[in-house]
Design goal:
alpha/beta, Rossmann fold, globular
Length: 249
Amino acid sequence: MTTKNRYAEYDKLASIYDEQGTERHDIVVGQLEKLVLQYLPKEAHILDVCCGTGQIAQRLLQKGYRVTGIDGSEEMLHYARKNAPNAEFILEDARYFQFLPTFGAVISTDVGLNLITTIEELQSVFQNVYQALLKNGIFVFDLYVEELCIEDWQTSKNRGEAKDNHAWISQFDYNTETKIGCDRTTRFELIDGQWQRFNMTFKWKLYSVTDIKSALDQAGFTDIVFSDIKNDFGVESSGHVGCFIARKV
């Protein structure tokens, strides 16, 4: 993977991300159980795209599955290898990875694909996933979608957290023309007795359900289903997140 394709900004958030509560990861795996895992054979091989610190991989391993994870942040993968040492983790950009047909399922959780900010590049991700799946393989992923969260995104907001060894504050703004949200985050971390400041900017693209279904269809997927995680699955903590399921024939 070339340096220019790395999501190095996320290196600075890896430790915070890894400390987030286990409950939300348990909820995600519970939903995956209903949506995809029950249809897979035991010891099936699963690819986790934008795998973060390996919390989902850890839980899938505990259920007996083989797991490969890819992520563009080297520091995220540092934690992932600690959390799920029996999984394989690869530093790679979701837009460019290539596998022969290997996996019974591909998953992408925690709205990682919203970081892909053009429909053309998201189409490339879907094509890469399609190529990596075995015949009848299942692709499950979540996204912020326009139909569910446009009003929320149009309302700028600040959020943050303070702990003994670190603190962060984030300001979010949404551009209605480009449909891109800009998250400007400042983090303070106590390192060797000295407080250090890190400034980061993250961009998130808001796609419509129609856009996503069309891109999946063009990549070759069939049986495409969209669900509202909060209203259709009763997961109140999910916020305004949608879930897509598609199959390779």
